[in-house]
Amino acid sequence: MKEKQTHSIKLESTCKITDEICLPDTKLPRVVIVGGGFAGLALVEKLKHKEVQVVLLDKNNFHQFQPLLYQVATSALEPDSIVFPFRKQINGYKNVFFRLAEVEEIQPDSNTILTNKGSISYDYLVLATGTTTNFFGMDSVAENSLGMKDIRDSLNIRHMMLQNLEQAAITCDDEERDALTNFVIVGGGPAGVEMAGALAEFCKYILPKDYPEYPSSIMNIYLIEAIDELLSTMSDKASSKTLKYLEDLNVKVLLNEAVSNYDGKEVTIKSGKTILAKNLIWTAGVKGQFPKGIDEKHVVKGNRLKTDSFLMVEGYKNIFAIGDIAAVITEETPKGHPQVAQTAIQQGKYLGNVLLKIIKDKGVNPFEYKDKGSLATVGKRKAVADLGKFKFAGYFAWLLWSIVHLLSISGFRNRLMVGFNWAVSYFTYEKSNRLIIRNFKPKPSVNNTKK
Q1: What's the confidence (pLDDT) of residue 447?
Q2: CATH topology for 139-284?
Q3: Alpha-carbon gap, residue 179 to 276, rounded angstroms
Q4: Rounded distance between C-alpha atoms, residue 330 and residue 326, angstroms
Q5: 30-133+287-359 and 139-284: same fold?
Q6: Ranges for the External alternative NADH-ubiquinone oxidoreductase-like C-terminal domain (predicted)?
Q7: Which sequence positions are flagged as catalytic?
Q8: Which helix (H) or strand (E) holds 176?
Q9: Which of 9, 62, 135, 155 could bridge 142 with an S-S bond, Cβ 3.0-4.6 Å?
Q10: Phi and psi of 62, rounded to 5°?
């Protein structure tokens, strides 16, 4: 009787201790990138096939296209159409390695980072960790509302919305029905405006077909903004046109108002007014997120890392920051660059060139941000565009927004899926992804938890 033969594959690695993450052995400089957003992936693309070892770390195994999160939240797109696996992204990049891990601490003195899966040493460390939702210290709002920063948030919003609409059809309590069908979006930036517009179209075109038992007028959408205009980073024309588009869609826009409290059912705003709503979506602010280990004196407003003109974190010689987490503080940019995708992509590409020149001991030029313009959409054929001196709105702005976003999505299949869904929606207003595939359970309220 023949003995069974066993086969094992041995990975030549630098691992010396059991808690070190295994990586192929190399004599090349190791660049560790924490975060696979727009900035991190742009840097990976710049360093692929170069004389460096690149290690990409992320707590997720996929890149997510954040500008379209609101479309997943409002049932227009399925989540897998705006996410793309990192390993598929780097397939064929012989010098790039992905590890699924969450970085917990940086130890600059030893050029080591600690993760929940083990440690990794680095020659150059790049932080591209992005931002998280900023509730500005309001615990009750944080506990009872939903942010919209990742794909899980979008799915939570979708399930919350659909579950509440179903419950509204069941209940005989008029006040409860009002709370279940009222939606409050906080924040008048692009995310808030686009979310409000998508919800308004859902209310106008989907609600009457799916829920004929009550009129679409029962679903009220409020957009609350703390200052006196929407889209404050864009032109006055874009702001005023956006306000008109939303009002035409019956969105109740409240300017110069701010939320002061939310208990899960009643929204209190600073003027003293209250809104009955069991759906509150928070898009009003973000703050940087990064692992501990960076000296706090190098952290500036918005919890961002202060860098020099070469994206090197202040106080360190081999730690860099790119994307939303980086604040390039100079005389020309005292508040840093805008926290948008085009900034992140430009910084990722720039830093790739900088690192290659530093390794070869060559001189480098400082980072220069090139503003390619801003776009925002409110709904079908309703969008605004600021492209330098050209500022316009309407169909052509919407068409440009659609083309730019479609071409920016990772993967041909994803572009095809999104394009097909948009084409169907254009002619029919159909949102076919109205599925409750898991129950959404709100977090226990701070105010309602028994002590």
Answers
A1: 47
A2: FAD/NAD(P)-binding domain (3.50.50)
A3: 5
A4: 12
A5: yes
A6: 372-427
A7: 194
A8: helix 174-181
A9: 135
A10: -145, 155
